[in-house]
Design a protein that fits this description.
3 strands
Length: 94
């Protein structure tokens, strides 16, 4: 069973599409890394998972009783940092 399911997720800023119809799941024991060039949507995607950024379409679903955490280890005047440490209701659809 997936701890996280992302289904047909689409996010764009104006005419710039960051990702379209993104689908994947993360199961217990899996390790995941998001690797891409700067400005391609990695931080935006994480904000969507944490519920601090909206998206155009699709679903983000967490299994019950899953808690998320993030540690921000950089500071940039160009990138808005992700400041959420925990979500109390991670099974909520955003």
């Amino acid at each position: 069973m997936n701890y996280l399911s992302v289904e047909n997720l689409t996010k764009s800023f104006g005419i710039r599409v960051l990702f379209k119809d993104l689908n994947f799941g993360i199961d217990k024991g899996q390790k995941v890394a998001f690797i891409a060039k700067n400005g391609t949507g990695k931080s935006t995607f994480l904000r969507i998972l944490f519920g601090t950024e909206s998206y155009d379409s699709g679903n983000v679903v967490f299994r019950k009783n899953i808690k998320l955490g993030i540690l921000v280890n950089f500071r940039s005047r160009y990138i808005k940092p992700i400041r959420i440490v925990r979500i109390d209701k991670p099974n909520k659809k955003y």
